[in-house]
Amino acid sequence: MDYLISEGYPSAAQKFASEANIHPTSGVNSIQERIEVREAIHSGDIQNAIERINELNPLLLERDQSLHFALLRCQLVEMIRKCPLHSDDPKPAINFAEKELAPRAPTNPQFLHELECTMTLLIYEHHKLPSDLATMLEPAFRKDLAQRVNEALLKEQGERTKAKLFDLVRLRAWSEQKAREAKKDLPEQLSLGLERMQSGRGKEPMHSNGEGEAMVA
Questions:
Q1: Residue ranges of E strands in the chain
Q2: Which helix (H) or strand (E) segment is 198 a member of?
Q3: pTM flag (> 0.85)
Q4: Burial label, 171 (beta-carbon count in 10 A; 0-12, 13-18, 19+)
Q5: Which of 40, 58, 63, 206 could cross-link with 48 by S-S, CB 3.0 to 4.6 Å?
Q6: Residue 217 pLDDT > 50, yes or no?
Q7: What CA–CA distance (Å, rounded) separates 120 from 54?
Q8: What CA–CA distance (Å, rounded) separates 182 from 184?
Q9: H or E, element range at 181
Q10: Is the pLDDT of residue 73 over 60?
């Protein structure tokens, strides 16, 4: 159940709760709102994401200055993305950085470093960026931020930020590694034992908007 809540599958979570005859937690009701925040970040609409976060929890970004700075920094990255070198006017991005990020930067050395790195994007043509700067323009940059926001919202709601399923998978991997280090007689590959559970049933994909079904056996 916690996996479905934390990863954002409202239909599957409601179905699981109904079939298991358990009362859904408050996290189920907020799944759709968190999905909308996540999708806004994934699409680069950071202002919309910030507004939705404030609607869900008006105090979250005030309490978590690091997360707030990360969102504003990502918003700056998106503004710079739209004004490549020798093209559009970079003044909106510079003005945004001066107004929103520069006052916060002196409060934390990491903030200052991240702001300096982000402003460096204005110097290079985007296809010539050094690898350490190019990562800010890759989808993974938005994805990591969206995951961080999701975990912060779950924590504020009193929900687990990581599903127990992930802990079990990590424990299994660690146990297998230790067994192999001890030269135990193990097959080259160990099955998770899900094949028989999936045999005879169609594989239904789980979509990021939560409309798909998850396997909740």
A1: none
A2: helix 195-198
A3: no
A4: exposed
A5: 40
A6: no
A7: 30
A8: 6
A9: helix 164-181
A10: yes
Helix-helix angle 109-119:65-81, to 10 degrees: 10
Instruction: For residue 9, count other CB atoms closer than 10 A to its CB.
Output: 26
Structure-token match 């230790």, residue found? 178
- Average pLDDT of the segment spanning 142-163: 81
Say how far apart CA 120 and CA 14 lie, in whole Å.
46
Does 198 score more than 50 pLDDT?
Answer: no
How long is the chain? 217
- Most confident by average pLDDT, 1-15, 49-63, 167-181: 49-63
As a whole number, the mean pLDDT across the chain is 77
211: which 2 tokens? 């409309």
The answer to whether the Cα torsion of 59, 72, 163, 42 is positive or negative is positive
For residue 191, pLDDT over 70 is answered with no
Q: How far apart are CA 95 and CA 87, in angstroms?
A: 17
Question: Taking the CB of residue 23, how many other CB atoms lie within 10 A of it?
Answer: 6
Q: In this structure, which amino acid lies at residue 22?
A: I
How far, in Å, CA of 204 to CA of 207, rounded? 9
